[in-house]
Write a structure and sequence with these properties.
Number of strands: 11
CATH class of the largest domain: Alpha Beta
Largest sheet: 5 strands, mixed
Radius of gyration: 23 Å
CATH architecture of the largest domain: 2-Layer Sandwich
Structural class: alpha+beta
Oligomer: single chain
Shape: elongated
CATH superfamily of the largest domain: Ribonuclease H-like superfamily/Ribonuclease H
Strand content: 15-25%
Number of helices: 7
Order of helices and strands: EEEEEHHEHEHHHHEEEE
């Protein structure tokens, strides 16, 4: 089983409004719907990080900065691959995957296969009590890196300069292109530190997708697939117990598949 790490970056809505204060803007005032700027992804354990963005097709980009068909179509093709893999990212359950599905239906693309998912934000909230669950904080806390500094919201505004320049400015296509390139670098760094955070969190994730399903002949670590394991005590049930194991590679403790368990019924006197 492979893991596909990914991250999606988006452009904001453009809307009509009469006031900037205490206002609720109806959907009829939307000029531009949110769209995708770039999508970065990598396969677990591999160095190369891929990224597709709205400047991959300059004709489309110059016509409309909100045209996200190219990155959406390319990542859609990645998700359609037949290989067995699960998805991993930070807040992908409530944000990235829903944004992708919205883009797929907008562009008339078929639904992709539902896959197992590891959300590092969900894991951080469920198994820990960090002072913050934001990706940058987790990466710094776990000492695996940090997010790329973007200069804040200005980067997103700079991307829009090709079509929606700031007041008093002319459209600046080159600034927009350079800003998309910077966003891609930011996007790639997010994917990189997400994988590194995942590796730190992995031993604590009890509902992790089961690697042992792909190796039915021997006991392997359920979280990383390693066979470098050792016996690590027992799990006790009402009428029996069975051997537990620990992984030397990822430090996880796990229960083997049912048919490979060394189960003992009755007396628990023998603790060897």
């Amino acid at each position: 089983m492979k893991i596909l790490f990914f991250d999606v970056e988006n452009l904001p809505n453009i809307v009509n409004t009469f006031t900037l204060f205490n206002t609720s803007i109806p959907y009829t005032n939307i000029i531009e719907n949110q769209s995708i700027i770039s999508i970065a992804w990598k396969w677990g354990g591999q160095k190369k990080i891929y990224c597709s963005s709205i400047i991959d097709d300059m004709t489309r980009f110059k016509r409309n900065v909100y045209d996200d068909y190219v990155p959406v179509k390319r990542f859609h093709q990645v998700l359609l691959t037949a290989d067995s893999f699960c998805l991993c990212g930070h807040n992908i359950r409530n944000f990235d995957l829903k944004k992708l599905n919205t883009a797929f239906i907008k562009h008339g693309l078929e639904p992709t296969q539902e896959r197992q998912m590891i959300d590092t934000l969900t894991a951080a909230r469920r198994y820990f009590r960090f002072d913050s669950n934001r990706l940058d904080y987790l990466a710094r806390f776990l000492e695996v890196g940090e997010k790329l500094e973007t200069g804040g919201y200005q980067l997103w505004l700079d991307i829009l300069q090709s079509k929606y320049p700031e007041i008093g400015h002319s459209p600046d296509i080159q600034l927009s292109i350079d800003s998309v390139k910077k966003m891609c670098r930011y996007n790639k760094v997010d994917v990189d530190i997400t994988e590194k955070c995942y590796e730190k969190l992995k031993p604590f994730i009890n509902n992790h997708p089961n690697y042992a399903l792909y190796n039915k002949e021997q006991i392997v670590c359920t979280k990383c697939g390693s066979s470098d394991i050792f016996k690590a005590g027992w799990r006790y049930m009402k009428s029996h117990r069975y051997q537990r194991y620990a992984c030397k590679d990822c430090k996880s403790k796990f229960d083997p598949p049912n048919k490979l368990r060394e189960a003992y019924s009755g007396s628990f006197d023998d603790e060897s």
